[in-house]
Amino acid sequence: MAGKITPIAMPKLGMEMTEGLITQWNKSVGEIIKEGDEIADLETDKLSMPYESHTGGVLRRILVEEGGPYPVGQLLAVMADADVSDEDIDSFVSDYKPVESAPAPAPAAAPVPAQPAGYAAPSSEPVPAPKANGLDKAAVEAQIAGLSTEISPIAARVAMDEGVDVTKASATGRLGRISLDDLEEAAGRPLGRKARRLNASPRAQRLAKEKGVDLSTFRGSGPNGRILAADVENAPVAAPLPVTGMSMGAALPVQVGAAVPRAEPVSNMRKSIARRLVQSKATAPHIYLRIEVNATELLKVREGVNKRLGDKKISVNDLLVRACGLALAEVPAANVQYTDDQILYFDQADIGVAVALPDGLIAPIVRGVDKKSALQISEEVKALAGKARGGGLRPEDIEGGTFTVSNLGMFGIQDFDAVINPPQAAILAVGAVEERPANVDGLLDLAPMMSLSMSCDHRVIDGAIGAQFLAALKELLENPVALVM
Amino acid sequence: MSVKSYRDAINECLAQEMERDESVIVLGEDVVGGSGSKGGKEAIGGVFSLTAGLWGKFGDNRVMDTPISESAIVGAAAGAALAGMRPVAEIMFTDFMGLCLDQIYNQAAKFKYMFGGKAKTPMVIRTTHGAGMSAAAQHSQVNYSWLTNIPGLKCAVPSTPYDAKGLLASAIRGEDPVVFCEHKMLYMSQGEVPDEPYTVPFGKGNLTRQGKDVTIVGFARMVTLANEVADKLAGEGITCDVIDPRTTSPFDEELVLESVEETGRLVIVDESTPRCSMASDVAGIVSSQAFEFLDAPIKMVTPPHTPIPFAPSLEWTYLPSADKIETAVRETLEGR
Questions:
Q1: Into how many domains does chain A fold?
Q2: Do A436 and A300 share a structural domain?
């Protein structure tokens, strides 16, 4: 049986990944690669990680320089057994076609096996004999006969089966014998069954059988790369993907195992977010009311105000917060909190402004929005956001309130629904201002439109109250003079 | 090289080692072998004729009948060893080991350690073990498992005439106390044995059959059963590595681990009762050190945890058999 050729291609390390950089080649051509060796360091726009070899062999070609970016699937290097000829490698490279959109099992890519790896081959199947040193059985037998040290009978058998040069092995085994470990050390690769068997716990194997999952392309998260039950538990039943351009023969299906997660402790902020959101969804029945606002006048007013303000600027969001404050003053039935035995009515609008942070989000509260100018609101929001990012918020900056504005417009989100921030009773989800077909003075035209979605705690805000609030808000945003008065 | 019985191989070894080294002496109950028998002093040479002919060659000073006191036999041997002799004591049945256990495990096995390595105790306790002769619960046991548990003591369990001679020579020439367990059912077994003296090292297992599917580890007479099963199964394409560890202490765990790495399946055949036995010891070694190579649960073929029955039908039911080993091998291959 001819040796095995393994392509090393740019892996797909995430759903969005389309290309990656090679920051460094850690191995050079001619080096013996063992399973788990880090052949190269890769980097994407999100992360950097080593490319770990899924199998053993000799690094025969490096096809690209350090740097890049190289598209996902591009052939970067070729690994093969030592007995594969240069011509075979050249034709493998020229015939190679990238495997498109093949998601790689995290964290490392699974190279396409040139021959299917299965469970431990039962003896009735032919045992693959790599014969890396090209020695035949008789030659190894002669070597063994001439050894000055003893060799374990198992090591002797494996050496003969696989044509391993035993004269290079040291003898550190029991009673000065050459052990199987010594032989592997000399060969520079796993030998015998170790090289061809799947390292999976019995429980993982049983689970895989039950689920019909092929473990042969898994990378285990256990000791020595052992595939554990947990690795299999969430594995999708892999769909075969077409692989073309293999010089070894017919296309073989690639099967992809479960992603192996990177575990990190949950931060206090994340715990708090999780707890509060679960509390909200579990206790406050959400209803969602949507409305579209024509932002033509809002943008004009903002532009005018900003011209007069000079180096200070107010944002669409600042105006939105102000508008929400005024709308809450107009519809006080929406400016409430629900408690188990009381409904709390507020006579000023304390509004939270959601701020995205690297590890979560937080909504510091601007007090009495209905009584403050857009400029003052703008400055307070900036100060609170700064404190939020710098970690300087005090408890009173985030407690209470009746309403929150969450704006994902700057990320291009058209519209979305938000989860109410307890103990508040409503939240406004704000999408991007974008040119959309609209009724402009009775004609269909493009206008800067903005989608708003209000989530209401139905225990205390009925649809009609929410609708009144949204109508008032729409009126304020489309006729925004009041916002800057 | 000629074909000899296990008994004759041991007898030959004793004679050759006594020839080779004057400090080698033999002591035990009826080792001179004539008291009360027709034909005078060496007509029989002990109850199993293991020491036949030695008294005639080496005389009273080197071949000594002792009183029926196991403690005295082993105590005298340990003292002689400390004083520079190389005694070979005989405990007629390993079942009597309890009578001299203090001399073995508190004295002989401890001297080297407790005297800072300055004391040597080069002594051999030859004994017979094993069931199959309707000798009942007090004359049929094996106890190499609990002897193996004693640090400072070595333990040999030869399964062939060749190993019996070579291991006994190693035991006599070594510097540590050794219990040398001779299986009663093997005494008449035959095998090629070189005429000249040679040694087989302790701690070096013997791969008696080569295969790919299952590793069978057997001790003492169980090796012959394991070989039988391996030969039978080879006929239908199931091949086995059969390992005879030869000595339980030291133990060639490397050979067992390497073989299991290659086969992924293990059956252990041990004539000991199953609890805290060599079988459970080897199972522990393999499951802790080669877990990832196992494709099936380890199988142990042992007697039940009972005294050995006297009735022959029950005794043979009690003992591991080729059938039981074959069943275990097939069970490890289930679902393959």
A1: 3
A2: yes
Does B275 reach chain A within 8 Å, measured CB to CB? no
> Which residues 6+ apart lie within 8 Å of A351 measured at CB?
A321, A324, A325, A328, A365, A366, A369, A401, A402, A403, A404, A405
Nearest Cα residue in chain B from A180: B258
Quote the domain boundaries for residue A213. Answer: 5-119+198-233
B213 touching A (Cβ < 8 Å): yes
Count, residues in chain A: 485
Residues 6+ apart with CB under 8 A from B191: B3, B4, B6, B9, B160, B161, B162
Rounded to whole angstroms, the Cα distance separating A454 from B193 reads 96
Token pair of B314 as six digits: 């029950």
Active-site residue B139, yes or no?
Answer: yes
Place of tokens 């069931």: B131
A224 with B292: Cβ contact below 8 A: yes
B2-193 and B206-332 agree in CATH topology: yes
- Whether B211 and A192 lie within 8 Å, measured CB to CB: no
- Percent over 70 (pLDDT), chain A: 85
Here the CATH number for the domain that contains residue A47 is 2.40.50.100
| A69 and A205 in a common domain | yes
Q: What CATH number does the domain containing A378 carry?
A: 3.30.559.10
The answer to whether B241 contacts A179, with C-beta atoms less than 8 Å apart, is: no
Residue B264 C-alpha, separation from nearest chain A C-alpha, in angstroms: 8
Residues A164 and A54 in one domain: no
Q: Which amino acid is at A59?
A: L
**Cα dist from B306 to A116, B136, B221, B318, B324, whole Å:** 50, 12, 19, 9, 18
Mention every residue, 6+ apart, whose C-beta is less than 8 A from residue B134. Answer: B310, B311, B312, B315
In degrees and rounded to multiples of 5, residue B243 shows phi and psi of -115, 125
How many alpha carbons lie under 13 Å from residue B59 in its C-beta half-sphere?
2
φ, ψ at A49 (rounded to 5°): -160, 155
Peptide linkage before A423 cis (omega within 30 of 0): yes
The pLDDT score that the predictor gives to residue B36 is 58
Residues A339, A468 share a domain: yes
Indicate the pTM of the whole model.
0.56
Tell me which of A41, A83, A286, A458 is the catalytic residue.
A458
Model-level ipTM above the cut of 0.90: no
Q: Is residue A244 part of a domain?
A: no
From the candidates B239, B241, B261, which should be mutated to test the interface with A, based on the most A CB atoms within 10 A? B261
Give burial (CB, 10 Å; 0-12/13-18/19+) of A480: buried
For residue B266, the chain A residues in CB contact (below 8 A) are none
Architecture of domain B2-193: 3-Layer(aba) Sandwich (3.40)
Q: Are residues A306 and A443 in the same domain?
A: yes
List the CATH code of the domain at B206-332: 3.40.50.920
Regarding whether A445 and A335 lie in a shared domain, the answer is: yes
Name the residue in chain B with its Cα closest to that of A152: B255
Same domain, A339 and A475: yes
Sign of the torsion angle spanned by Cα atoms A216, A221, A226, A229: negative
What residues does each domain of chain B span?
Answer: 2-193, 206-332
In a domain, A413, yes or no: yes
- For A214-236, the pLDDT digits (tens) are 787 677 787 777 888 888 886 66
Residue with token string 């367990």: B181
| Percent of chain B whose pLDDT exceeds 70 | 97
Span A306-353, pLDDT tens digits? 888 888 888 899 999 999 999 999 999 999 999 988 999 999 999 999
Q: Does residue A409 sit in the same domain as residue A462?
A: yes
Rounded Cα distance, A130 and A161, in Å: 9
Instruction: Tell me the C-alpha distance between A463 and A457, whole Å.
Output: 10
B261 and A124 within 8 Å at the Cβ level: the answer is no
- Residue A254 within a domain: no
Q: What whole-number distance in Å separates Cα of residue A316 and Cα of residue A302?
A: 7
Residue A387 lies in a domain: yes
